[in-house]
Amino acid sequence: MLFIAPALAVLLSLSIYPLIYSVSISLQQATASGAWTLDNFTRLATDDFFLTAMAHTFVYAIAALTCEFLLGLGLALLLNKQIRGRGLFRASLLVPMMLPTVVVGVVWRLMLNPNFGAVNGTLKQLGLNTENLTWTASPRLAMLSVIAVDVWQWTPFVFLVLLAGLQAIPQEPYEAALIDGSSRWQTFLHVTLPLLKPSILIVLLLRTMDLLRVFDQIFILTEGGPGFATETISLYIYRTAFRFFDFGYAAAMSFVLLALTNVISAAYIRLLQGETQKGT
Amino acid sequence: MISRVFRYVALVAALVFALAPVYWMLTISLKTEVDQFASPPPWLVFSPTLEHYYDAFISRAFGQYLVTSAIVAVASTLCALVIGTLAAYALARFQLPWNLNRKLSLWILSTRMFPAIVTAVPLFLMMRDLRLLNTRTALIVIYTAFNLPFVVWMMHGFFADLPRDLEEAALVDGDSRLGALVRVVLPLVSPGLAATAVFCLIVSWNEFLFALVLTQTDAAMTLPVGIAGRVTQYEIKWGVMSAAASVAMVPILVFALALQKYLVRGLSLGAVKG
Fold first, then answer.
1. Chain A environment of B242 (Cβ under 8 Å)
2. Which of A132, A146, A186, B223 is the least buried, fewest Cβ under 10 Å from its Cβ?
């Protein structure tokens, strides 16, 4: 028990205590007098900025998750074979996901710069008109741009986890399917997918949590702009707390985010537990 | 045959897609300003220069940010390893009452799922009251807490994989628990320990939100915050930014390649033993 004590002390003082402290901030700091009130929470329902930021967060999470999953699964299926250069390929795909997000931000600000960026430079060489393609500076394209950057960075992660999952599947069910005369599509649907389901759930869970709380990339690429076009919930909380110094309201919003991630991760974990019980 | 060709085409396309943007940034850091703005952009042929690196790390404060980042990453990793390994060992070896083992480890893991912004607000106020804003201490303490659940979770897995006989022999020989852990058990899990350490280094090195909130002075800022502060200004020195970002990237790439074997296991919190 003595061995656990330091760890518990650190987590209590730096994870649990801040949460409790945050509850009191959210309930007290709505008024100058510091009286207890629910004002910060009732304000949420009528704050259009908050609701818009929530909507942006969901659009961002759903779009990025879908693309990352489909691309990652496709790549994993393609690479689940003995081919030359697989080690090199794996190592190179690690690069985007390991980069500090701030570096990802710099990389893509350079790539997407309308004047000298490589994306528009390449498109121009292909004879396309790039005048209106201002990417992160355009209200219409900014959201698409930040989603694309997330897909660029995190598809490799989905790919790696699913590839590890594919390689853990034994050969026998495939041989049985072959004898039954199943088509490749049927084999995929009835053998591969069910056996891969635990890995799929884990990778979706981890990505969903990261996507819902996304902050760094968007902060560096667009700072939530232009205007409010790419403001997600974490950015709005940051702005409320550290630009407008309304800590109480920021704390209240952060509990909505926390509740949301808890509900979603609980749902995933329940699915996952059902899956592992079936397996044993 | 066609499917094999298709496979290789898809692979090469994915490779180019993953690496070209990073390569592009590297070239910008090595190009003179004339070449940076040239149209069409030169991908391969330009005369390289190191002036932006000199500008960033000697003339500007990026050298200082680099030192801060290194100190904070190493110190917080060491703290998290010591505290976390002890806790993981206890969880793996002692049966606590009321099924506390499982509850504790789940609870420890769940702190990892917190969105960072949720604790950023109270931690900022706490550090302000403790007069620790703009200090390395604040970042070291917070990153230790941030990495701790991960260390406990990973090391718990490595300890659980290990047979008990060896340390029990050491205990019979009169070693204390701590002595058995340090002399017998740790050497056996040293690859796992090293992998866990490298993960913590990467996380601390890359961390952005807390560093942004807690440090605003040149003396306390980490490299990511220093870079971000310049990127969002109006007139951006792209060569300097790229040079700083390229340097920030180097240790991460070295670590990640050294870590390949454990990477999937670590990133999926031990859920996938790839």
1. 106, 110
2. A132
B216/A contact by beta carbon, under 8 A: no
Q: What are the φ and ψ backbone dihedral angles of B81, each rounded to 5 degrees?
A: -65, -45
Task: Name the amino acid, one letter, at A142.
Answer: A
Task: Write out chain A's pLDDT in tens, 280 residues.
Answer: 678 888 888 888 888 888 888 888 888 766 666 677 788 888 888 888 999 999 999 999 999 999 999 999 998 888 777 767 777 777 788 888 888 998 898 889 888 887 777 787 778 777 777 777 778 787 888 899 999 999 999 998 899 889 888 888 888 888 888 888 878 888 888 888 888 888 898 899 889 988 999 998 899 888 877 888 888 999 999 999 998 888 889 999 999 999 998 898 888 888 877 776 664 4
B122 with A106: Cβ contact below 8 A? no
End-to-end CA distance of chain B: 30
- Contact between B130 and A30 under an 8 Å Cβ cutoff? The reply is no
Cβ <8 Å between B257 and A156: no
Are B41 and A121 a contacting pair at CB < 8 A? yes
| CB of B133 less than 8 A from some CB of A | no
* CATH number of the structural domain spanning residue A106: 1.10.3720.10
Closest CA to A92 of B195, B20, B10: B20
Whether residue A38 lies inside any domain: the answer is no
Q: Is B78 on the interface with A (CB under 8 A)?
A: no
Residues 6+ apart with CB under 8 A from A210: A154
Look at chain A and report how many structural domains it folds into.
1
Residue of B197, B216, B251, B253 whose CA lies nearest to B66: B251
Q: Is residue B141 within 8 angstroms of chain A, CB to CB?
A: yes
Instruction: Please report which helix (H) or strand (E) contains residue B226, including its range.
Output: helix B223-231
Chain A closest CA to B5's CA: distance in Å? 11
Distance from the Cα of B150 to chain A's closest Cα (Å) equals 12
Q: How many CB atoms lie within 10 A of CB A24?
A: 14
Q: Is the same domain home to B74 and B123? A: yes
**Closest Cα to residue A254, out of B113, B213, B118?**
B118
Count CA atoms closer than 13 A to A55's CA, side-chain side. Answer: 8
| B200 and B241 co-located in one domain | yes
Instruction: Quote ipTM for the complex.
Output: 0.86
CB-CB neighbors (< 8 A) of A22 in chain B: 118-119, 121-122
Write the residue in B43, B145, B273 that is nearest to A10 by C-beta: B145
User: Do B23 and B129 fall within a single domain?
Assistant: no
Tokens of A44: 């949420």
Q: How far is B114 from chain A (nearest CA, A)?
A: 7
